[in-house]
Amino acid sequence: MASDAAVQEAEAAIARLITAPMPPDPYPLYEAVRRVDRVYETPLVPGAYAVTGYREVSSVARMPGMRNGVRAAAMQREDWQEHESLRLFLRALVNLDPPEHPAMRDVASSVFTPHAIKQMRASIEELAERFVGELAEAARTGEPVDLVPALASPFPVAVISRMLGVPDDQGMHCYALANDWTRIWGGSFYSDEELAQADRSVLELRALFGELFRARRAEPRDDLISALVAQHEAGRLDDEDLMALATFLFISGFETTTNLISTAVHTLLEFPDQLELWRKDPDITVSAVDELLRHGTPICGTVRLTSETVEIGGKQIPPGRMLFLMTAGANRDPEQFTDPDRLDLTRNEGGHVSFGGGAHYCLGANLARMEAQVVLPMIINRFSGIEVAGEVQWRTSIGLHGFDHLPLKLTV
Ligand code: HEM
Q: What residues form the membrane-spanning segments (predicted)?
């Protein structure tokens, strides 16, 4: 039985975790909740549980009786149909439940295949060379370089743009529009002005993607937009699903990978012995990237709604309850990972849950891994010295862990 003080600490931790801005170091907060209970019913949000145990998060992600459409309820707005941005977001693959989810997931998996990802390898290497080269040019001036606008954002945007077939000169504009949109994805923590801006930006994004669909219908190419348009013509996607899937794939392609790259570089600076180890032994790259994904989880959690009574961590949970799956907390669970706060690039203790699990398991996990496996070694080997030089700015959106600004002094 937890003490009153421990319960108070857990409540304060949850209050902090669900209130913007996102704390720069959320990990002690998950630990405070887990100390009280690995599946903790919080009075702060009636009917909701915070799940912080690794075993419990992994098993919930795979349980069939879970629903994702909970995000619709989380929007807490009766007028969501009147907002372009909310309507399209709630049609995104990740927000669908059966029978819509497996149907759209089948289509998505039929175009976003392991083969399509493998084919991106040469492009990823070429783009990484280009961005790291530009970083080196900027570093030669002796001025600090901000890693996020210089590489961590535009590199994944360029990769997903090329994969989908968004022209190079439109990628960053679509990215800016997408950023206005994702600001309203985190629940109800946005202003009326942000919602109005999201609606305007989604309209523009729709027009740009609509134009791309028309162009590829007339003249298909070897890209994913052409493949999606073919699925639409075969009757496997309606107009709205085509738009929702294409725009969601575009955004998923950079939103979290940007966090992975910026957090990884920052984490390596905090563990210089591990940075040196990786420089000396390139063969650890695969486990190194997965350990960085575990240690600095780019999306800290997700939400599910129970649709039937389920048993989680020995507790019977009735239908209609909200579960906050705290993947970042699970990734630092000491019952799963030895000394979980330590970065150990050669760690071999089973998988992390950074890409979720079950029916909604991240479709782009291997694309994100490949990008990081290519670009991170290039960064650490191109620059003999890497230091934080100036004020860093963490992302403020709840649940997204990464940087808006990470100024670095780089020595070529
Ligand atoms: C480090 C980078 C990434 C992380 C940490 C990440 C994480 C996740 C997580 C946790 C989910 C599951 C959400 C849930 O269950 O509610 C997810 C779903 C998804 N991710 Fe990723 N992701 C990353 C990169 C990518 C990339 C590059 C793409 C490529 C387009 C992508 C496409 C998707 C899609 C389409 C889904 C929805 C799958 C579904 O609902 O069936 N992700 N991702």
A: none
Cβ–Cβ under 8 Å, residues 225 and 183: no
pLDDT per residue as tens digits for the range 160-174: 999 999 999 999 999
The residue range of the domain holding 206 is 4-411
175-229 pLDDT tens trace:
999 999 988 887 667 889 999 999 999 999 999 999 999 999 999 999 999 999 9
Give 11-35 pLDDT, tens digit per residue: 999 999 988 888 999 999 999 999 9
Q: How many domains does the chain have?
A: 1
- 322, 48 in Cβ contact below 8 A? yes
Q: How far is the CA of 363 from the centre of ligand 1 (A)?
A: 6
348 C-alpha to ligand 1 centroid (Å): 23
DSSP-derived 3-state class of residue 130:
helix
Phi-psi region of 358 (alpha: psi -120 to 50; beta: other; left: phi over 0): left
Q: How far is CA 128 from CA 124, 132, 150, 168, 411, in A?
A: 6, 6, 12, 15, 18
Residue closest via CA to ligand 1's atom 6 equals 355
Looking up residue 74, the CATH number of its domain turns out to be: 1.10.630.10
